[in-house]
Amino acid sequence: MPIVTKCKECGADIEVPDDALPGEIVSCPDCGIEYEVVKIENGKVDLKLAENVGEDWGE
Amino acid sequence: MAEATIIYDRLRWEEKQLYEKGSEVGLNVKLVDVKERPLELTSTRLAEDISHVVLQRTISHYRGLYYSFVLENQGHYVINSFVSSLICGNKLLTTQLLAKSGIPTPKTYVAFSQESAVDIMEKMGYPVVLKPIVGSWGRMVAKIINREQAESLLEARELLTDPQQQIYYIQEYIKRPPRDIRGIVVNGRVITAYYRYQPEGDWRTNIARGGKAELAKVDGELEDLMIRASNIVSGKVIGVDAMETSDGYVIHELNNNLEFHGASEVSDVDIAKEIMEYVKEEAAR
């Protein structure tokens, strides 16, 4: 069962899979802003704003 | 049970796959987010919460590079090693080592001023390719067709604050089909290979830029070149990029921070599983 949380930017519902791992990225289906999963505990999810793409990212 | 730690900073599709396949092959896999786990430089012991064998999977080149250096010096075995990441992450170092090892690679110069960069381009003849020495996803890789374009691009580079942007890596433009070939080399074996077709309206083949993957069969001379290229950087999990020219193959890039989502869609090999099988071998030593 996905865990539903509110987007801090636009207030839309964001569904986070309950098996998501810390460091995974979820995005708001309405405004597209990206969040990083911090932790999932007791059916609650902690999100923080994901980092912007860095110059040294990727292969 | 043998264990290994995946170090990461953003859990992409690849890291989730590696984590899941690790369990499938019977490896106890721990995940450590490097953003949350500072390291003590003055410690000379193994970090207790990090396994002896570490699979380095950060999306940030520099985080992975320095994390690897510290862990290796505390006695951890890091895949790919610090030196491997240092060389693969730097086109200047990669090109020279490829050439020195007798592996065919496009003719390349490095220039240290705008003026000498233009002189070299004029001497080489256009088109030429200008690349940042450290860069990824094909960003700022430019095909230059004449002197005017060269001068304006070099002027723009001069304004960038990163001093590495004023070191000009200039490569001959290779006439090739609209694709290159990526081989994935794991511990000295090409486990799979695929063509990367350039997308409509771009000459770069990076999957991150919209390039399309198609399964390729690699054997004989090309397979041998890919394995040799991976060996010169002591690479354990390396993406080796080759181009087809009228005179045979050239190897132009080595990738230590392998992205294989696109490849997985066309390959008949379970790439993440192959990588974790190898990590397990190291962890069981």
What's the structural blueprint in terms of helices and strands?
The complex is a heterodimer of chains A (59) and B (285).
Chain A: E1 3-6, E2 13-16, E3 25-27, E4 34-41, E5 44-49
Antiparallel strand pairs in A: 1-2, 3-4, 4-5
Chain B: E1 3-8, H1 13-24, E2 28-33, E3 53-56, H2 61-73, E4 77-79, H3 82-88, H4 91-100, E5 108-111, H5 114-124, E6 128-131, E7 142-144, H6 147-158, E8 168-172, E9 179-186, E10 189-197, E11 212-215, H7 220-232, E12 237-245, E13 248-255, H8 261-266, H9 271-283
Parallel strand pairs in B: 1-2, 1-3, 3-4
Antiparallel strand pairs in B: 5-8, 6-7, 6-8, 9-10, 9-12, 10-11, 12-13
Can you give a write-up of this model?
The complex is a heterodimer of chains A (59) and B (285). With 59 residues, chain A is mainly beta. Chain A has one domain: Rubrerythrin, domain 2, CATH 2.20.28.160. In chain A, 0% of the residues lie in helices and 42% in strands. Chain A has strands at residues 3-6, 13-16, 25-27, 34-41, 44-49. In chain A, the strands form 2 sheets. A 3-stranded antiparallel sheet of chain A has the order 3-4-5, with no helix packed on it. With 285 residues, chain B is α+β, with helices and mostly antiparallel strands. Chain B folds into 2 domains: 1-104 and 175-285, 2-Layer Sandwich (D-amino Acid Aminotransferase, Chain A, domain 1); 108-172, 2-Layer Sandwich (Dna Ligase, domain 1), CATH 3.30.1490. Chain B has a 5-stranded antiparallel sheet with strand order 11-10-9-12-13. A 4-stranded parallel sheet of chain B has the order 2-1-3-4, sandwiched between helices. Chain B has a 4-stranded antiparallel sheet with strand order 5-8-6-7, sandwiched between helices. In chain B, helix 1 (13-24) crosses helix 9 (271-283). The longest helix of chain B is centred in the N-terminal third of the chain and has 13 residues, at 61-73. The chains are: A mainly beta (59), B alpha+beta (285). Chains A and B meet through loops of A and helix 1 of B.
